Structure formats: C-alpha cells, structure tokens
Amino acid sequence: MESTTQHWRYDDHIPSEPDCCATIVGMVLEQLEKNGWGNKDTFGIHMAMEEAVMNAIDHGNNRSPDKTVHLVIEICGNRFYSKITDQGEGFDPSAVPDPTDEENLEKDCGRGVMLIRNFVDVVLYNDKGNSLELTKQNSEAEA
Amino acid sequence: MSEFECITTEALEGATIVKFVDQRVMNPARIEALGGELLSLLDGTHATGIVLNFDGVSFFSSAAINKLIKLESESKKNGLQLRLSNLRPEVRDLFSYTNLDSLFQIKDNQFDAIESL
User: Chain B interface, mutation test: which of A47, A103, A109, A113, most B Cβ atoms within 10 Å?
Assistant: First the structure.
C-alpha cells in the first residue's frame, strides 16, 4: 500500500469481518479529505463502499473465516475507483427487486444495491456477480 | 434514561424524543442493538408518538434504515405515530432515493415533528 495526498492506492485481501469494513472505509474517508473532496461526494463514496463491502462480507462470503474480500481502491486527485471481489457464488443484480416499489418498501432486500448505484457515477458487475467496480469523479472539482 | 447504549430518550410534550448516540450509524453489532432499543420504546408507552431526531447523525447505513422500517411497522400496530426530524441533506437524500419518504413522515426540525403528532 502506498499513500500520498495525490495518488493513493490500496490493494489487499481483508477478512470477512464487519470491523475490517469500518477500518477500510475510515482510510478512504481520510484520503478523500486529504484530496479536498466535499461533503456530498464523500458521503456518496462512504455509502457506496459501506454497502458494497458489507454485501461482500455478509451476502457474498457469509462472514466465513475461510473467505476474504479482495479490495482495490484508488484515489487519484479527483477520481475515485474501487473494485470489490468476494469469494461467494455471486448474484444477478438485475434480478434484485426494486426496493422503491410500493410493495417492496418495507422489505429489507435490495436497498443497499440501489444506494450503491445512486451514490457513485459508474457501477460495473462481473458476469458471475461476485465482483463490482465503482467509479466516481469529484463533482466539486474545477474543470 | 441510561438503560440504552445506542440512543438517548426524553419525554417532551407527550412525545418520546429519541437521539442517536453514534454519529455514524454503520456498525452491524450496534445496529442490531439499536433495533432492539428502538422497539423497546413501544413497550407500555403512554406517549402520543416517537420523534427520531437525527441531529448529529452524519451517516446511516441501509441496515440501520431497515431497523427504522421495523419500528415504523410496529409503531403503527401499537397506534403510535413516528416522525423523523433534523436530517442532514445527505441523510435526507437516502430517504428520497429509496422512496422511503413516502413511508416516513420527515420534518425539518423537532418542533415541527412534535406539532405534527
């Protein structure tokens, strides 16, 4: 792992433990602040990372101590990128019920996946559905 | 009241005012505890309603939102009204994006929330 205020990259496998998610998210928030990202974008990345990594830990790896989550995170000035890969069976994100439908409002399922899409610019899943890539530009950066 | 770890409560004008202890409501174990504490507010209460005051809350995960949905559902069953207030714009957006602002009554401030009960 290397860390500068201009280009920060993290590439590691973390245990399937919620506390590890909190640690990683904390590191990301610190780097965003160092690079001058504003509150709104920082909140969006926080939300997307929290939901994506916790989905990987909980639903992908079922919190198995034998499985890890592979995280690649890059913050290069005004660009954020992350790839989150679990060791689970994967899922079809297009098959997740729309949590905003009236009939699904009170159900627990699908809200995290929807929030990820809302808070970053690009979300790409692999075919298996056990890996996703997130990209976001700093919306407050000068062109 | 000191029996809670994740919330503080106060009785005000017939309502139960609830504030969150954590600035970032995201730790799974804390969220589980939070859910239990919120539901326990319904036990034998004589309040007209519950106001969840989000003052100081900067992050609220989807798992935490699920606990609020459960509280909303159980409050209805108990004839209690639930209001949310003092949400930061980013947190307020969560409820808009998820269409949950049609499920919850969200007020700008605690005063309006109490008045609406």
Answer: A47
